[in-house]
Amino acid sequence: MTKLIRAFFAMAVISLLSACGGGGGSAGNTSGVALFTSAAEKITISPGEVQTYNIGGGIPAYIATSSSSAVSVQVSGKTLRITGGNGGSAVVAITDAAGAKVLIEATVGSGIDLYTSAPSTVSVGVGGTSAVYRIGGGSQVYLVTTSDTRIASVGQTTSREFVITGQSGGKAVVTVKDTLGKEVKIDVVVGTVDQLFSTAAKDVTIEVGGANTYKVGGGSTIYAADSSNIAVATAKITGNDLVITGVSTGKATVVVRDSTNGSLEINVTVGTGTPTPLFTTASPSLVVAPSTSPSFTIGGGRAPYRVSSSNASIVTATVSGTNLTLNGVAKGSGQVIVTDSAGTTVTINVTVGTGTIVALFTTAPGTVTIVSPASATYSIGGGSAPYTVTSSNVAVASVTSTESGFTVKGESSGNSQILIRDSLGASVTVNVTVTAAAAVPVAVLPGDSTGAVGDTLTFNMSGGSSPYTVSNNNPSIATVTQTGNSFTAKLLNVGSTKVTVFDSLGKTVEVTITASAATSQLRISPATITVGEDSTNDVSLTIYGGTGPYRAFTSDLVLSSVPAAAIAQSANGTAFVVGLGSKGNRCMTSGAGGIVTLGGTYAITLTVLDSNGASATSTMNIKDNSKGGVDCN
């Protein structure tokens, strides 16, 4: 009976508290417990992982937000779910109905340090390809780069795998980096690194104007050469050939270097008899206008040369190698003395400001034609600086000037005149005609290509005005068959042929197709292709030889992409397609690696591995559109 009375009393107390709002868990919670979560202040979560925590205290209902896409959050009642994204970090904010807030710092990572299956040092042969290495740990996405693409290139088929291809002998460093900036570095040695050597003796003698050629070998196989005195001797490397040229009588040291730390010195003596007397192309007495800087050449004697002025307030002079420059400072007279290393001198009497001077001139022709929005740059000389340059119609042709030249840019179709004046009022006029940009020219994709005898290459025609007509100048090398806006070239014999495409208006474009000897080994056809940066079409290649299935890699995932999965083998050659990369186009003016010369090319290496580990490469050259910095987007 006593137990029943106690139980009844306890139930009565609980009912009374509930009626007074003291039961907790409702919007009217007055428990005084602060908002909290079971998550720590800082958490680490893997990509795709879901972590669940409890929320309590404060005043329900609860909401949660994330400061970035690195993690996503969801609240269901008092349960918080945090899901990891691809990588990075975020701040998760939990807020109750009264505005109280709790913050959690979330970092997306595997919880494992960044790693790669590659050893710390990798050796690859020239033209050879390493094993396929995997990347893990750290925080995705991963980026693989090389310190020197001339030595070794890298290719990725997915962000978790990469290969290394040897391009030329030497050493490079491959760096694997995750989105949190963690890095793993791999030392790469390509080929054998023997001691650098040259067929030139330690001491050589060359006559003035003569040139001797020597061979360079060993070391890492990208060579460079410098001369300690280019006024006496110059040095140039082309492949494995070192050419030393005698400029003037004297001595110099030629230093040959490879792409790593190898170097050797060659002592060069130029001329053995009496040297040509010291001379300069400047007249013994000449007139220079104030603020002008005429240039002349120094020769003979014994280099190096030096120069001085008897009156630097009137005229100054500088010398660079064999180039002499005079600078008119103020009206008056002075003497410029040229001296060689043997102490021989030549004196030039200079008058500044009076007498006959060089007339104002520009390197621009009298009439200039520009296709909008291109620009052209020209020099100004003679007369009396400073110069002013103006355009009669800036809506047609705008102009910007420097101390010694100007650039004119075509803005819209029409005519304008560029007027150049010096400080004494002399003037030169250049007539400018600006035309609209031409229609899209007829184009062939890919461009110049190389394949092996027996291969069939496919080309697509676009631009211009269809229909198109195809002409082949050497049918003994390739049989060309046209179907609509495409044509194929069946390679028959070793050699080259030129295929010309005509549109309906007579506009043409020409591609060179080269056939090399066929081989049973693994290869990619075409071996070399050229693609304009304006093109966004896929490029088809064919794999021959080897043992399938195959895997494909590219040295640049930004401007290109290759199949991520294994490529099945077929009886008549296995095709795979190179598409656009993560950038979505092939434009190099807005972010390709390295600096691309106007009208130049950027090379991407495409690598294929077969199931036995054999490798083959093809080069896709992306050609700049020659628009002078105008993006192709």
Automatic annotation (TrEMBL):
Alphabetic keyword roster: Signal
Signal found in the keyword field: yes
Signal sequence extent: 1-19
Protein name stated in the entry: Uncharacterized protein
Organism of this sequence: Undibacterium baiyunense
